[in-house]
Design brief:
The protein has ten helices and six strands; from the N terminus they run ααβααβαααβββααβα. By secondary structure, it is mainly alpha-helical. It has a three-stranded mixed beta sheet, with no helix packed on it. Helix 4 crosses helix 8. The protein binds flavin mononucleotide. Flavin mononucleotide binds next to loops. It catalyses: L-tyrosine + chloride + NADP(+) = 3-chloro-L-tyrosine + NADPH; 3-iodo-L-tyrosine + iodide + NADP(+) = 3,5-diiodo-L-tyrosine + NADPH + H(+); iodide + L-tyrosine + NADP(+) = 3-iodo-L-tyrosine + NADPH; bromide + L-tyrosine + NADP(+) = 3-bromo-L-tyrosine + NADPH.
């Protein structure tokens, strides 16, 4: 009896240790298996790819989905779609050749410009370039994009503060020596003066799912590819009117910028584009583009 009463607390302690150990092991196994399947989980250190945007780990969305999982609609719940005749512009071959060359020449002059003039840009021009971006194809015509146009100086400054704070950590800690070295030729760093100076900042959000007027959710297939294509059209439209930008993907700023701009949890920041005329003393790195033979395979 005496032996038993001495042993009981010892056994209880041993039992607690065993249960604790098992719980820790099962939590570790869960983390490892879920990271391999979902973009929303933290990347294991051995597989750390800092350029894969950690902004996609915005818990607010994950939580929202879990809470209301029954609220999704299938596309067949929507109305039948009419099909109408399509007619395209048809050009003689000579004109086609000329147009293709002209467009290439114009697009080949596009450069990422990090020195932007504060000179005002007509608002209607910005509306039109965004209309152009909105003509992009999208998975199942879901149009999963939101373009937030910021011209308010105070909001631009708030954006700058968020981006510079995160970018300094990115450059000093997250990006690693190789990435920082690769960028050094471009002379980029975490100081982003253009975020205050450019007359417009366009923040492009991808909608990871849609929310219908009745509150139900709709799958946005290939939303990131769709929004990336629309950004390509946006860049072309800016080039077409003589405006410049620099494609930027501010790492780890997404959740803060989304909250600042009061965007809903289904939206994730994909790109931040400062837009304006180039500064009169703007410079760009003297980069060369690959020739056709290096980028095209004709079979
Ligand atoms: C997805 C993507 C992300 C980029 N992110 C940045 C960035 O964060 N900061 C920056 O200064 N430039 C950024 N750039 C611009 C590239 O550095 C630039 O496109 C490249 O050096 C080629 O120069 P060009 O655009 O003048 O042809 C990015 C470009 C792309 C396509």
């Amino acid at each position: 009896m005496v032996v038993l009463s001495v042993l009981t607390p010892v056994l209880a302690v041993v039992l607690c240790l065993v249960i604790g150990f098992m719980l820790v092991r099962s939590a570790q196994t869960e983390t490892t298996s879920s990271t391999s399947s979902g973009e929303t989980e933290r990347t294991p250190k051995a597989d750390f790819r800092p350029w894969v945007d950690q902004d996609l780990q915005d818990d607010t969305e994950i939580k929202g989905r879990e809470d209301e999982d029954g609220d999704w609609v299938d596309s067949n719940e929507e109305e039948e779609l009419l099909h109408v005749a399509y007619s395209a512009s048809v050009y003689p071959e000579e004109t086609m050749l000329e147009r293709s060359k002209d467009f290439y020449t114009q697009m080949n002059q596009r450069r990422s410009v990090r020195f932007i003039s504060p000179e005002p840009v007509p608002r209607e021009v910005i509306n039109n370039v965004i209309r152009t971006a909105g003509t992009a194809p999208s998975g199942a015509h879901t149009e999963p994009w939101t373009f937030v146009v910021v011209s308010d100086p105070e909001t631009k400054h708030q954006i700058r503060l968020i981006v510079e704070e995160e970018e300094e950590v990115n450059y000093r800690q997250r990006m690693g020596d190789k990435w920082v070295h690769d960028l050094s030729r471009l002379k980029t760093n975490w100081i982003k003066e253009y975020l205050d100076v450019a007359p417009y900042l366009i923040l492009v959000f991808k909608q990871t799912y849609g929310i219908l007027p009745n509150g139900k959710k709709r799958t946005h297939y290939y939303n990131e590819i769709s929004v990336s294509i629309s950004c390509g059209l946006l860049l072309a439209a800016l080039q077409n009117v003589g405006l410049v930008t620099v494609t930027s993907t501010p790492l780890n700023c997404g959740p803060q910028l989304r909250l600042l701009l009061k965007r809903p949890a289904n939206e994730k920041l994909l790109m931040l584009l400062p837009v304006g005329y180039p500064a009169s003393d703007a410079t760009v790195p003297d980069l060369k583009r690959k020739p056709l033979d290096d980028i095209m395979v004709h079979i």
